[in-house]
UniProtKB/TrEMBL annotation:
<feature type="domain" description="HTH araC/xylS-type">
    <location>
        <begin position="192"/>
        <end position="297"/>
    </location>
</feature>
<protein>
    <submittedName>
        <fullName>Helix-turn-helix domain-containing protein</fullName>
    </submittedName>
</protein>
<dbReference type="GO" id="GO:0003700">
    <property type="term" value="F:DNA-binding transcription factor activity"/>
</dbReference>
<keyword id="KW-0804">Transcription</keyword>
<dbReference type="InterPro" id="IPR020449">
    <property type="entry name" value="Tscrpt_reg_AraC-type_HTH"/>
</dbReference>
<dbReference type="InterPro" id="IPR009057">
    <property type="entry name" value="Homeodomain-like_sf"/>
</dbReference>
<keyword id="KW-0805">Transcription regulation</keyword>
<dbReference type="Pfam" id="PF12833">
    <property type="entry name" value="HTH_18"/>
</dbReference>
<keyword id="KW-0238">DNA-binding</keyword>
<dbReference type="GO" id="GO:0043565">
    <property type="term" value="F:sequence-specific DNA binding"/>
</dbReference>
<dbReference type="InterPro" id="IPR018060">
    <property type="entry name" value="HTH_AraC"/>
</dbReference>
Amino acid sequence: MEDIVKLDTVAAYNNLRSVKTQHPLVTLLDLSKAEPMPAKTFNFGLYAVYLKELDCGELKYGRSHYDYQEGTLVFIAPGQVMGVQPGVKTFEPKGWALLFHPDLIKGTSLGRHIQDYSFFSYDVNEALHVSDKERQIILDLFSKIQHELDQSIDKHSRKLISANIELLLDYCTRFYDRQFITRDHSNNSIIERFESVLNGYYSSEKPYENGLPSVAWCAAELNLSANYFGDVIKKETGKTAQEYIQAKVIDIAKERIFDLEKSVAQVAYDLGFKYPQHFTRLFKQRVGCTPNEYRVLN
């Protein structure tokens, strides 16, 4: 079984890349001056933001072309596992790597809402591709963080570094919103495929056997991370993925309720509800009346 190397400290990461540690809780690396990552699997105990600048022509993931070629941002959260494949000559792009320990942001504004930056749980193929102007904003913020790292550590260091990281992540949120808009055609395709997945699910025996489809299951069927999938659905429809699924279930329920050979309870079981009363409660919330009342009224 392959050994997984834990990277729980900034010093451990810096040692791996032969870089001097300036601050015990945060580091900023110029990748062109650091040793490449060895061919191992790593379990990160740190937050990481990688800006990779690639000069290798048109970028492509599968059949999808990237929007921009000036730079790509990839985010890693504590607990995530990343691997470097052995036996492959690694092309080490130039760029930057910002890593910080969770202790850096405890008690700060960033620490209180770090979970709001959902892109830390996106897959690598859902990375943020920035324009030249956006890349320059990122580099300017990296420069401010590096300026603080070059100073002697004092009582202001943690607050100022944390504030600049928070500003960086806020800009990344804006840039992702732009990417969602510029990939409108691709996002529409995700909605269509989502509909197809749900229709296929309810054309089978899966609801009765497995219950209601979860957001995570739908995302996996579309080869997307749950967070990225949820963010796309929210941006495009104004509903959460869970609300979208519930709306679809109720829409199907409205048709099946008119099968008078089945009780409302049996309709609920067929739709994937474990308890009929849960179906009745959701139906009333969405439609304004119970399934039995809807059957009689129509």
